[in-house]
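tmp note - Carbohydrate ABC transporter permease
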Amino acid sequence: MNRISGKRSLGDSIFSIPNGIFMLLVMVVTLYPFLNTIAVSFNNGLDTIRGGIYLWPREWTLQNYISVFQNPNLTQAAFISVARTVVGTVVQLFCTAMLAYVLSRKEYMFNKLVTTLFVITMYFSGGLIPGYMLIKQVGLLNSFWVYIIPGLIGVFNMIVIRTYIQGLSEGLIESAKMDGAGDFRIFLRIVLPLSKPVLATVALFIAVGQWNSWFDSMLYTAGNRNLTTLQYELMKLLSSSTSQGGTVNVDQYKNVTNMVTPVSIRAAITIVTAMPIVVLYPFLQKYFVTGLTIGGVKE
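out:
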């Protein structure tokens, strides 16, 4: 037995060496673009043009971030991005969870039919032009609520939450009904507290989607600069850089000095837009395995 366990330990050790090297390479390849962008964002803009910036700034400066935050358009865009992320996440999560609870109840005779109709919308849509016309007819153009109402229900998220709720103890719900609790009270007092893992997971999905979204800003709020978002501003900056062969007109930024260049400005905006999600993710990571495993698999 000792020999066998010794051989296994030796084999595990031999395997762990190339496996560790491989995982280290994967980590380096994954982290390098992000770390390089951070280094460029803190480096002198003119010095960045020379190249050779990898993981550490050669000439430290905060001018890139000062130029970004002194732009009133970007400040307003940051406010709108935060507002749509917070409001959109809370409202969509609550509505999606409420629908998931209804469709998880066996006594609801149309749950399979309604679920099927919702699933169909995952594969087929009305198209971009009909969708735009609908948004216009209901008066959501150039309105903040165009970021919230059209995505009020996420079908994939609804299915994940519904599957999780179906795995909860039916006895708890039946006991609550015997005590006179209605469905809405059961949903608030029993289902939601017991569904924290899957709700946290879905909340992160929704928050990332809201924060990174820019296409709806371009389509529905382009006529109102007060409703622009950070991601849309970043997209315009990157598109301008591509169309001008790598140069960007940075005259739109206040206090632009010889320390600021298009490359450094892009790096700073990229970090500003990515950092909130990077900071939020570790707090919700612990719910991922439980939420997706129980919410995504049902016997």
